[in-house]
Amino acid sequence: xxxxxxxxxxxxxxxxxxxxxxxxxxxxxxxxxxxxxxxxxxxxxxxxxxxxxxxxxxxxxxxxxxxxxxxxxxxxxxxxxxxxxxxxxxxxxxxxxxxxxxxxxxxxxxxxxxxxxxxxxxxxxxxxxxxxxxxxxxxxxxxxxxxxxxxxxxxxxxxxxxxxxxxxxxxxxxxxxxxxxxxxxxxxxxxxxxxxxxxxxxxxxxxxxxxxxxxxxxxxxxxxxxxxxxxxxxxxxxxxxxxxxxxxxxxxxxxxxxxxxxxxxxxxxxxxxxxxxxxxxxxxxxxxxxxxxxxxxxxxxxxxxxxxxxxxxxxxxxxxxxxxxxxxxxxxxxxxxxxxxxxxxxxxxxxxxxxxxxxxxxxxxxxxxxxxxxxxxxxxxxxxxxxxxxxxxxxxx
Length: 397
Ligand code: NZQ
Ligand code: ZN
Fold this sequence. Notes:
Blueprint: E1 15-18, H1 26-29, E2 35-39, H2 44-47, H3 50-57, E3 62-66, H4 75-88, E4 92-97, H5 99-111, E5 138-142, E6 154-159, E7 164-169, E8 177-180, H6 190-208, H7 216-236, H8 244-256, H9 271-283, H10 287-301, H11 307-318, H12 325-342, H13 359-368, H14 382-394
Parallel strand pairs: 1-8, 2-3, 2-4, 4-5, 5-8
Antiparallel strand pairs: 6-7
């Protein structure tokens, strides 16, 4: 087991342009000679005027548009964009949207210049899992703080027919820039705001709730970001409360939660995400809702393995300083549940319409997708994952 901070090389090439009315900076961020393909989702950017603002900022550029990238972006939709790029010779992609549009656009950027069949970018039983060697440059205008896709090199693509949601990653698909205007979050419905708070919170947890290796900076950043989300979360989800300070803190927290600063040299545990992706495949539950429905069970079933960090979490994040360590941990788990419930997130599997008869399928899927040994120690076997699903089904809060 890792005893101390591991060696690391950290590089994050994304330029962040943050604040009010920043879309107009596009002309200084994209070279004038680029042929730009604007990518977007199901229409929110049209409805709320963001696409018009982008068009205006790109006046004088040669640009086209590709809409319809769905939540949980599908391989098939992205392949249509790749064909368009090849046909019309685009050489810059500008994604406007949340994690789905940005993830889809990362795959499009890599797939458009991939030597061979782009499906081979994916491993885990889908393709050959070949490395991405190049990608078209990509910029983003973020409309939903949640995934940090705007400042990382990862993406998740859905394969409908193969019933799979598979991640990929490369230094080549980091956005060259991302525009973060907190005011763009003012049009988000409550459910998406709560999803964003929760996804960011769980990203932090997955890089923090493992075992201690002395990463004081990583832990300190993580604790500070979690405390920020706990403080602002209930106000973030008030969809009519257009408070710039709250939304600005929300947006930056979500970005920092998964842009690499928390994970350098310390162990990580992406099991809640691995289990969550299979739940989305099962019944299309939103990504963040799957995470919150699983997280309490993960904390309970994996209490022993995560005990030292759970005590630290109780003391430093929830300020629980009395009682035995066991009592502190139990209180911290209940506080976590209360926090998630306070922003109307599900905390059990029943709430997202999963039943006992689904568990065999979920376990088969984990196995098929190379997730038979999860967690910071690789000791979360399929049996342990089964126990987590079962616990998440039986829990009542
Ligand atoms: O499609 P449109 O019409 O734009 O509507 C979207 C979508 O329906 C809407 N929306 C976005 N911005 C809005 C808005 N509605 C009103 N006002 C705005 N400003 O919100 C809906 C959800 O959008 P989506 O992009 O799907 O949400 P999110 O950002 O939560 O992304 C989820 C996807 O990201 C992946 C997830 O698996 C999922 O596929 N993830 C990506 C990660 C990464 N790249 O690092 C890490 C995450 O753990 C996650 O797995
Ligand atoms: Zn996530």
